[in-house]
Amino acid sequence: MLFAFALLSLVSVFSLGSAYTDLSDDTLKNLPGPGDDFDIKTGSILAPILRPRVSGTKGNRAVRQHFVDFFKSQLPEWRIEMHNSTSTTPVSGGKQVPFVNFIATRDPPGSLQGDVSRLALVAHYDSKYTPKGFIGAIDSAAPCAMIMHVARSIDAALTKKWAAHGGDDFDVEHKGVQILLLDGEEAFKVWTDADSLYGARALAEDWESTFHTAASIYRTPLDSIELFLLLDLLGSARPRVPSYFKTTHWAYKHMARAEDRLRKLGLMKSSPNHAAKMAKRENKKPRREPHFLPEGNKADDAFMGGFVQDDHVPFMARGVDILHIIPTPFPSVWHEIIDDGEHLDMDTVEDWTRLVMAFTAEWMDLEGFLNFNSEERRDTSKSEFEIP
Ligand SMILES: [Zn+2]
User: Is residue 53 over pLDDT 50?
Assistant: First the structure.
């Protein structure tokens, strides 16, 4: 009996599959916040996204250019691609509207594209056609900004990790990160299968029939996606994100555990028990602390099969594993004209960013390579300055 138990726990350790290493408390404490870059008026990352950016319009193109500029100047090691498609919409009067997905990929140096499995960080960058002037701060300007800051924060650690393992570790040499900022998620009129997910549908379809060279480990770019981590409607206070899929509940549990640790370390700024809020409060008794991801302990038989229609659907239909981080219920500003920068809860935005960063760093086994000392930060700003 005892032997059987020991054997079982050994099996469960191996069945986690690829390595996933917890970050130390020290590393969690030092994960860099976005600082001024998330200022809604002047922030270099978030402010340029907070404008109407309906697919096919000037604003949409300008925001895409912002992504290109950011990666070219700050993350030159990432491979940038645009995925183009066109479609008519219910309001285009028969005209073709362009939909352009922005894709940035960082693979281990020297690896062949078809031999890398990737964590995909995904959000949509288009905004809704109505109401006029709609900004879509939670939908999904803030998630795009979160992903950009996460990419920037793990970039140097990826370089160090790959330099440290000189081709001696299969897992290290075959694991990359991919960012998908998708266009045309929103319906122009009423959400239907044809009027929604324009960019995601075209990309999933194209990638299904784009074949890597015959000797590749992964057949197509879709097979190369190890996990499709989709962020949507994030940035309002007190979100509650359930675990939607039994097949990826193990990944949800990893993120829920990271959240739990960040909370216990007092690092979640939106927490009613955060030091900054406690200092202003007379009654120091700890308050109840709702979690963003409260279903870490959900039982296998509690999954009802319900899910939210979003950019993951065309990928899920083709067998890609999905972790969908979207609150249920939706935040009250959803698809209202007040979903703008001023209505973001910035503490919550920062907390999500820190949590997604921790999850990504653990997924990519970056413990020991994340070093956020002041010297490194100075160096980064210097190199930015030198780029013409
Ligand atoms: Zn929307």
Answer: yes
